[in-house]
Amino acid sequence: xxxxxxxxxxxxxxxxxxxxxxxxxxxxxxxxxxxxxxxxxxxxxxxxxxxxxxxxxxxxxxxxxxxxxxx
Length: 71
What we know:
- It is a single chain.
- By secondary structure, the chain is mainly α.
- The protein has a single domain (about 1-65), classed as lambda repressor-like DNA-binding domains (434 Repressor (Amino-terminal Domain)).
- The protein has helices spanning about 5-10, 15-25, 30-35, 45-55, 60; strands spanning about 1-5, 60-65.
């Protein structure tokens, strides 16, 4: 499972979704889905833009967590 830390990063930088959308040109709906971790897929250009804008590395924005399988 991929965890998105956009809400934490934005909170630390005191940013609103509308500010990030306006400044980056990323669709507000895309940012909202990332913020609430309901996003199913994302474009690599979007990830690159967010990392540059927020001045974070990829692993600060996204994290892979291994899913435990039920027996």
